[in-house]
Amino acid sequence: MIAVSACLFGLTFGTTWFREVEFPFGTFSTDMGDWGDFATCMTGVFAFISVLLAFEAFKGQVLALKRNSFDTLFSQLFAHHIKLYEKIQDAHVSEEENIFLYYCREIKESIIDKNGLNALWRSYVDEYSKGNKVKYENLKNYFKFIYHEVDIIREYEKEGILTRGMAKKYVQLIQAQMNNYELLCYLLNQLEYYYFGKKGKVDQEHQEKYYKYLKRNDFFKDLNDSRSFVREVEILLKAADLGDKAPL
Predict the structure, then answer these.
(1) Mapping DSSP to helix (H, G, I), strand (E, B) and coil, where does residue 112 land?
(2) How far is the C-alpha of 171 from the C-alpha of 189, rounded, in Å?
(3) Cα separation of 12 and 9, whole Å?
C-alpha cells in the first residue's frame, strides 16, 4: 500500500496527463494539505493493520503456551496412569487372580441383563475376593482415572486448545496402553455405571456424550475388531441395550 500511495503521489505531481485524467471520483488533488490528510489516514490504516497482526501473533503464542501446558499435564497424567496400573498388577498373586482375566472369564460364562451388569461388576469383590475390597477399589479408581484423562482431553478440545486430530492422538495413546482384556473390563465398567452410577437423566446424558466421544476417537476399536472377544462384547452390548448410544 505504501508503494501504491507513493506511485499515485509521483504521477500526480510528476506528470501533466495524469493530473488531467477524469476518474469517477474526479481528478487527483494537487493540494499538499489534501495529501497530508491522506497520509494521516493511511497512517491510521497501517497502525490498525499492525495491531491486528500483533494480536494474531499474540493469540498464536498464547495457544502454543496452552498446548505446551497441556503436554506437560498429559505427561503427568500418563505417568500416574501407569502407576495405577502397576498397583493393580502388584496385587496379583498369580495369573488366576488377574482382575482383567477374571472378568473376561466371567463374562464368557454369563448371560446377563442390565441388573446382571451390576452383579457381574460387583462379583469380583463379593465372590472371588471373598469380601476383600482393596483390589476392587484399585480397579475402580484405575478406570475412574481413565475417564478423567479422556474427559480432560475432551475439555481442551472443546476450548479450541487441541484440534480434533490432536485430541484423537492423545486418546489413542491412552487406549494403546491397554490390552483387550483391560478394554473389555473398562467397557463393562462404563456400561454398568450408565445404569447403576449416579442416578438421573442428566448424568445419563453426560455419559452418552462421553460414549460418543470414545466412539469418535476409536477408543474400543481394537477390542471391537478382535475376533477373540466377539462373544464377550456381544454379551455386554446386548445386556446394556443402548443401541447407537453404546461407546463402540
Answers:
(1) coil
(2) 18
(3) 5
For residue 163, give the C-alpha cell: 484440534
Which phi and psi angles does 23 have, rounded to 5°?
-90, 165
Instruction: State pTM to two decimals.
Output: 0.72
28 grid coordinates = 487527483
One-letter amino acid for residue 138 of the chain: N
Asked if residues 227 and 180 have their Cβ atoms less than 8 Å apart, the reply is: no
Look at the alpha carbons of 164, 166, 167, 171 in this order and tell me if their dihedral is positive or negative: positive
State the DSSP code for 28. P
What single string gives the DSSP state of each residue in 188-242? Answer: HHHHHHHHHSS-SHHHHHHHHHHHHHHHHTTTTHHHHH-GGGHHHHHHHHHHHT-
Q: Provide the pLDDT confidence category of residue 9 given band limits of 50, 70 and 90.
A: very low
**Model confidence at 94, in pLDDT bands (50, 70, 90)?**
low
